[in-house]
Amino acid sequence: MDENLILKIIEIQKSTKLDFILHLASNTFFLENVVISKSLTPVNHPTNRGGVYFSDTFVFKIKTTVSDLSLAPLLSQSMLGPNPDFQDLEITTKAKIDNSLKNVKLFGHLTNSMQSSSLIELNMNIIRIKLE
After folding, report:
1. What is the reported pLDDT for 53?
2. How far is CA 52 from CA 6, 27, 109, 111, in A?
3. φ/ψ of residue 74, rounded to 5
4. 119: which DSSP letter?
5. In sequence order, what are the residues at sequence separation of 6 or more whose Cβ sits closer than 8 angstroms to the Cβ of residue 18?
6. Nearest-5° angle of CA 62, CA 15, CA 106?
7. What is the residue extent of each domain of the chain?
8. DSSP letter (8 states) at residue 51
């Protein structure tokens, strides 16, 4: 994973509002209050966890909210638990990188979600990033 590119997106977010869109099951959902951060994981060295997924000593996370509650029934298809594998979630944005506007694709695994009467909060681990 390109850690420098993710750090660049975090830095851009400090001065520029980026519009993030989640693409799931042929639908698009606008993400609000997107926070990308780097945090430590509870492992001492990179490892496969339960043979299901890989965990490094750190992870980049996305915490965001979605006002469109039609996303809720689609989430059970994405999480580990109801499913034997994580589904890769695609999030897109556009950012000015190296003096030109680039399409950025972030791919993540949904780690948990919480729903209220007006919004859904999502927490994801970023697994890769792609610049186009």
Report:
1. 53
2. 24, 27, 12, 14
3. -80, -20
4. -
5. 9, 12, 34, 93, 94, 95
6. 30
7. 3-131
8. T
Q: What angle do CA 123, 19, 102 make, to 5 degrees?
A: 110
For the record, the structure tokens of 114 come out as 């919480």
Q: What does each C-alpha distance from 118 to 23, 57, 62 come to in angstroms?
A: 20, 35, 20
| 55 strand-pairing partners | 47
* CATH of region 3-131: 2.30.110
* Least confident span in 27-41, 68-82, 85-99, 109-123: 68-82
Find the helix or strand (DSSP H, E) in which 9 lies: helix 3-15
Helix (H, G, I), strand (E, B) or coil at 74: helix
Q: pLDDT tens across 70-108, in order?
A: 999 888 776 655 555 668 899 999 999 989 999 999 999
Amino acid at 113: S
Lowest-confidence segment of 31-35, 92-96, 108-112 by average pLDDT: 108-112
